[in-house]
Fold this protein.
Amino acid sequence: MSTQGSGPTSDVVVQKYGGSSLATVSQVRQVADRVGALARSGRRVVVVVSAQGDTTDELIGRAGAVNPHPAGHELDQLLATGETASAALMAMALQHSGLAATALSGSRSGILATGPHGAGVIVAIDTEQLRTLLDAGQVVVIAGFQGVTADGDIITLGRGGSDTTAVAVAAELRAGHCEIYSDVRGVYTADPRVVPDARLMPDIDIDVMTEMAFAGARVMHSRAVELAALYDVDILVGRSTATRTGTRIHRRDGNDMLEDRTAVMAVVHDTDIARITLRTHDTPDPSPDVFRFLAEESIPADMTTVASAPGGGFSLGLTVHRSHAADVSRSFSDLMAPRRHGVEVEDQVAKVSIVGQGLLSRPEYASRMLASLVGSGISARSLSASQLRVSVTVPSSDAVRAVGLLHSEFGLGAEAGALPASLSPRP
């Protein structure tokens, strides 16, 4: 993705509104009022919208009722209509308030994408039309979650893809800033739905947020954060109806205190995963073939382990999103045929992670994590660690309890005080 256009456009504001913020006519009008106030202040505004409410799930349900296994081409055409309709309604609401506004589908907004249907990747944005409309005083409303291939085919970007659309547009317009609004106040130290005393984080380093998003934090799409880090786009995450600031995600300038840079900052969990283990016998290392397949299908894998087996052969394990488990398992069997092999799928597991900075060089973090879980009777397996994240798999039935235990262990609760986890005393 390469930026087009000549100079910075710092007077451009790119905002994204999630489907829960646009579920009703009243909410669409409220967002239009908010956008209108910004436009009337003299800023040039681009609004990226998701499908209203549960529209995407409803469309998937309709597709499944007609065909339990719809082709990706037709499914993407269907799902893209949700965001397209949302963009049209928002533009209409802005026009009704007296503002000039234009709604654009993914193709009309110049978004070029590639990859498999349902998991497209933005490769470029032709900003000529966007800039022309903005220069003419228009509020531009873009249907998120979608783009068009080089052949003119509609392709969707996967769940949360509207976040990626907004960040990509901000990067291409050189806005340097992107605002993501939904029904949450911002980024928390844990999912507040399962940890009542989770704290709102006023700001967070973008590299840490990248790890949180990939590890399962649903407040931001992982590819959107990766893109923001690559193109140095600050992100503000907040509630669409709130007047107070949410969470600022940005590249820290290095002036933070040492303790803050080495603390455990959050606990993240993901229950939508499966653990897949491929065992081969008397065969070469299958890793190159396995990862070539994952790359071709754009399937992210995590917590990978490869080990040689006694007597020859290999054992390769990894975690993938549960929706990919059946296809990955089947493909592994196809890749290994007719060689001797076995594939095991565990779908009653969850991934629980502590996220922060300086974690790998301080093994006491992993030690405390494991001691807390095992001491409470929770089986922790498949540990993987980096400077920013330590993850383990646990039985899915224990995931919520594990998050609460670790949130308390590392002193992240609202009543824990200001000490970072690296300095918090053990009981």
Observations:
- Residues 72-96 form the longest helix (25 residues).
- The chain is about 35% helix and 25% strand.
